[in-house]
Amino acid sequence: MPVDHYENFPVASLLVPARLRRPIEAIYRFARSADDIADEGDASSEERLANLAAYQAELGRIANSEPATMPLFHALAGAIREYALPLQPFHDLLDAFAQDVVKKRYADYLDLLDYCRRSANPVGRLVLHLFGRTGPEHLEQSDCICTALQLINFWQDIAIDWQKDRVYIPQSDLAPYGVTEADIAAGRCTPAWTALMTFQIDRAEALMRRGLPLVHALPGRLGWEIRLTVRGGLRILERIRHVRGDVFRRRPTLGAWDWLVVAGRSLRM
């Protein structure tokens, strides 16, 4: 599973029990489609927000036991009913995507975490609901993993996001390291930039490791799915660290050898 876009999250693979692939696919399609509304194509901000509002209205129909009007929501409504999934995580995702349309900077780390709480954590929580693992400790560990994966994706995509006028590095983190947005625009990998990226890498890694106990709480194949996802995310951080934070010249990704390393490390978790 590549650490990219919504592939950051457990998607229905051969490791997931067959009976749960359909609801996981429905959740994934919803999240991916809504994210694309906010992020892809050349629609205006007003059009993007209107389309996301239409998705919110579809969730309202599900809440009122009314038939969906969009094909995407037929399967989703069935999964929500069959597994008694909470609707709030779906609303949170749409709220985060709408925020992405209008908000391009984050004041501090807490501000960024609030975004991740709505943009990343809901998917992990929904998967836990499917497996009946909704204890407070499991939800917290899932949140740590999902937020860490979101942060890793941000650090992978700094150059890409800059082209969309987005900077996810907290503004309060730039000045202490002597880094400006002009450095991002120019793709300058200075010692100051490397120090800033090392700080971000360390913080994301610490968050990911806080969530590691979750892999031992999840049954069978899902536990292995999460192991590979976590190890894949940590491997991306290694890649970013190896290039001293220079994500401007080449976006760090995982090749065949990396996945062999990830698989081997997953066996030792």
Explain how this protein is built.
The chain is an all-alpha fold and 269 residues long. The chain contains 14 helices and no strands. The chain has helices spanning 18-39, 45-63, 72-83, 88-102, 109-119, 121-131, 136-156, 158-163, 171-174, 181-186, 191-211, 214-217, 220-242, 256-266. Helix 4 (88-102) packs across helix 5 (109-119). Mean pLDDT is 90; it is low at 1-12.
Q: Secondary structure elements and their pairing?
A:
Elements: H1 18-39, H2 45-63, H3 72-83, H4 88-102, H5 109-119, H6 121-131, H7 136-156, H8 158-163, H9 171-174, H10 181-186, H11 191-211, H12 214-217, H13 220-242, H14 256-266
Helix pairs in contact: 1-3, 1-4, 1-6, 2-4, 4-5, 4-6, 5-7, 6-7, 7-11, 7-13, 11-13, 13-14
Q: Helicity level, as a percent range?
A: 55-70%
Structural class: mainly alpha
Give the CA-CA distance, first to last residue.
18 Å
Amount of beta strand: under 5%
Shape: globular
Q: H/E series, N to C? A: HHHHHHHHHHHHHH
Could you tell me the mean pLDDT? Answer: 90
- Major β-sheet, in short? none
Summarize the structure.
This protein is mostly helical and 269 residues long. Helices cover 69% and strands 0% of the residues.
Characteristics:
269 residues, mainly alpha, disordered N terminus
